[in-house]
Design goal:
The chain is mainly β and 127 residues long. It has one domain: NAC domain (Metal Binding Protein, Guanine Nucleotide Exchange Factor, Chain A, Beta Complex). 11% of the residues lie in helices and 28% in strands. The chain contains 1 helix and 5 strands, in the order H-E-E-E-E-E. It has a 3-stranded antiparallel beta sheet. Strands 1-2 form a two-stranded parallel ribbon. A hairpin with a 3-residue loop joins strand 3 and strand 4. The chain is globular, with a radius of gyration of 15 Å. It starts with 12 loop residues before the first helix and ends in a 9-residue tail after the last strand. The C terminus is likely disordered. It comes from Dendrobium catenatum. This is NAC domain-containing protein 100. InterPro entries: NAC-dom (IPR003441), NAC_dom_sf (IPR036093).
Length: 127
């Protein structure tokens, strides 16, 4: 897929939730050409730019949220080399800040990779 030259994607938080995320969840034929679907648990942060056509200093992705354990409500956020850790409090109720840490406890290294997780109400927790 190709996007027009000089295409930039700079949606607001509201546009991300109301236009992209809600349409993705409620309309199976919705296609956001500028936002790729990825499995964040199988992708390291430094590999993400190659999966996004609009990447410059940031990118947008759809990703299904999976449970950490089959009987758990906690979200699985680990990769082969590290994990995404939630920091601070939830912002705007449906936006969470995540920081990537390389390694496993007790030897971990905080990286400069930051991700914002947007979600709809709990009933739409799948993506």
């Amino acid at each position: 897929m190709e996007l027009p030259p000089c295409f930039r994607l700079h949606p607001t938080d509201e546009e991300l939730i109301t236009h992209y995320l809600s349409n993705k969840l409620l309309n199976s034929s919705f296609d956001a050409k500028a936002i790729a679907q990825v499995e964040l648990n199988k992708c390291e942060p430094w590999d993400l730019p190659s999966k996004n056509l609009t990447w410059r200093h940031e990118g947008y992705f759809f990703c299904e949220r999976g449970p950490k354990y089959s009987t758990s409500l906690r979200t699985h956020r680990t990769t082969d080399t590290g994990y995404w850790k939630s920091t601070g409090k939830d912002l705007v109720g449906m936006k969470k800040t995540l920081v990537f840490y390389r390694g496993r406890a007790p030897k971990v290294e905080k990286t400069k990779w930051i991700m914002y997780e947007y979600r709809l109400e709990d009933s739409y927790d799948k993506i």
